[in-house]
Amino acid sequence: MRVFIAGLGLIGGSFSLALRDRGLAEEIVGMEATEERAAEALRLGLVDRIVSFEEGVASADLTVLATPVDTIPLLAVKALNRVGEQQTVIDMGSTKEELCEVISQHARRGRFVAVHPMWGTEYSGPEAAKHGAFVGRTTVICEHERSDADALAQVEKLFTAFSSPMVYMGAEEHDLHTAYISHISHITSFALANTVLEKEREDRHIFDLAGGGFESTVRLAKSSSATWVPILMKNKYNVLDVLREHIHQLQLFRRMIERDDEAALREMIDRANSIRRIIH
Amino acid sequence: MRVFIAGLGLIGGSFSLALRDRGLAEEIVGMEATEERAAEALRLGLVDRIVSFEEGVASADLTVLATPVDTIPLLAVKALNRVGEQQTVIDMGSTKEELCEVISQHARRGRFVAVHPMWGTEYSGPEAAKHGAFVGRTTVICEHERSDADALAQVEKLFTAFSSPMVYMGAEEHDLHTAYISHISHITSFALANTVLEKEREDRHIFDLAGGGFESTVRLAKSSSATWVPILMKNKYNVLDVLREHIHQLQLFRRMIERDDEAALREMIDRANSIRRIIH
After folding, report:
1. B221 to chain A nearest CA, in Å?
2. Closest CA to B182 of B95, B114, B73
3. What pairing do the DSSP bridges indicate for beta strands A112-117 and A139-142?
4. Does pLDDT of A212 surpass 70?
5. Given a cut of 90, is residue A152 above it in pLDDT?
6. For A259, phi and psi rounded to 5 degrees?
7. Does residue B194 carry a pLDDT above 70?
8. Which one of B151, B169, B187 terminates a domain?
9. Are B253 and A212 a contacting pair at CB < 8 A?
10. Domain boundary among B169, B191, B223
11. B212·A94 Cβ contact <8 A
């Protein structure tokens, strides 16, 4: 299989490593936003060659769109415009509603599979690519009924090889759930980092005291704006909905602490503890 | 050295294991809130015997108070009432202002050292005790100038043996910084768990999609109310101050997303990224 990956950062780069580690591709070619990052991807062995988008799509059995989500819908259309009956295009973006709407009436919609592996780290760029990504992490496939059976089967075979269990969802449903579970965590973490940076004028104290749980909560705050501004904007209404609920929950905590209402505070924390039954 | 540990949960239990692993105590005795937990602590080898508070303090070279923070000030006074010139009492609590005020005029104030190791996990009880705790984590010593030189040196020797670097602070300063860095992270995490549990009626989706950053941000939400209600109440004013700032930061995110102000959003995220220079 010949693979073309547009976007050789954290996700595209890790996808390439997963293919290579399992010997699933004869050739992997790719493109990157800047020459510097393209050179880095080559140096790291993420791709055999750097190619143009047109050249990449034309020559590939599988085209993978792993660029920031705001660029994916147009690239998806351009890729579908260029593929034949034996070629497949997938994306790995964190938002799907607009994408699926944009390609919905394309003559070759069936050659597209909308894919979202629920894996990531707070790092970005080619050097963030990791071996063993996706293992044990769920991959969401959206609107699978709109994909041709052979294209879907091809993707399922890959993620099975990556040991990533798959779930199937509509695009709207996907964007709703990822807002709840992934996107809001990032906003919380960004806001927490800014809170502490605002309040703590001395880095030294943050550094010394960070053992007290701060590190894990703030880890995601290292995530890049190039990735996250597009995700938050593309999933605006769902994100705002969850953000309002989150602010409301924090206001409840605030009110209970203000009123010394220990019983209510205990109840809120005990309720939060029930996340244990889901996340181990 | 003979050691008495009041409270054999996560912190007290891990302190015992740290002493045992380094052969620093001839005998470790302790007490726990319930018979069941006391039996568990014995079974796990955290203590050689279960004793009463009075018996424990009387017989120990070092008394360690590792109970919930709301119980520490009174226990500290009761312990100091019972110790002689060669005995030392320390606490391991997360808030210090009230404690240090309560013992400030005690005739044997010098025998007390106020200690806070910046280490913890989201688990509690004797079975949460871990080997290798405190290693590489900062331990804060509060009002060290109020402790007798030999008592302070004894504590410093222990934490040096545990490979835990020490920093020195006033009690007020300590409570302020821990509110910023540790306490607020827990509230954020509790509130996030409740947000998602509120919004996501189906556990299945949370479970499937949790790879997207949710797990790390919500980890602390598993922390027990028995530990955290007292901490939040004892540090009420500092916690409220940071909580207000945190809600404000989330409202800024909300407003920018509502207004599609991508430039401002990018700036907020880039600012949050600067936490990288502190937390690696």
Report:
1. 6
2. B95
3. antiparallel
4. no
5. yes
6. -90, 5
7. yes
8. B169
9. no
10. B169
11. yes
DSSP category for residue B107: T
Best residue in A194, A207, A238, A274 to probe B by mutation, most B CBs within 10 Å?
A194
**What are the structure tokens assigned to A79, written together?**
């890729």
Same domain? For A61 and A160 the reply is: yes
Structure-block tokens of residue A122: 């707070």
Indicate whether A180 pLDDT > 80.
Answer: yes
pLDDT of residue B209: 80
Chain A, chain B: beta-carbon pairs less than 8 Å apart: 325
Residue with tokens 């920093």: B167
Using a CB-CB distance cutoff of 8 angstroms, which residues of chain A are in contact with residue B177?
200, 205, 209
Domain check: are A119 and A198 in the same one? no
| Bridge partners, B167 (sequence order) | B140
DSSP of A222-264: GS-HHHHHHHHHHTHHHHHHHHHHHHHHHHHHHHHHHTT-HHH
Verify whether the Cβ–Cβ distance A222 to B192 is below 8 Å.
no
Residue A118 sits in the same domain as residue A196: no
Q: What is the pLDDT of residue B184?
A: 92
Q: B140 and B187: one domain? A: no
Nearest CA in chain B to A140: B209
Task: State the ipTM, two decimals.
Answer: 0.89
Cβ–Cβ of A265/B225 closer than 8 Å?
yes
Contacts of A196 in chain B (CB under 8 A): 180-181, 184, 275
Domain tally, chain A: 2
| CB spacing of B254 vs A245 below 8 angstroms | no
Q: Do A257 and B239 touch (CB under 8 A)?
A: yes
Q: Which of A138, A195, A251 sits opposite B208 (nearest CB)?
A: A138
Please give the residue range of the domain that contains residue B214. 174-277
> The whole model's pTM is what?
0.89
Let me know whether A183 and A164 are in one domain. no
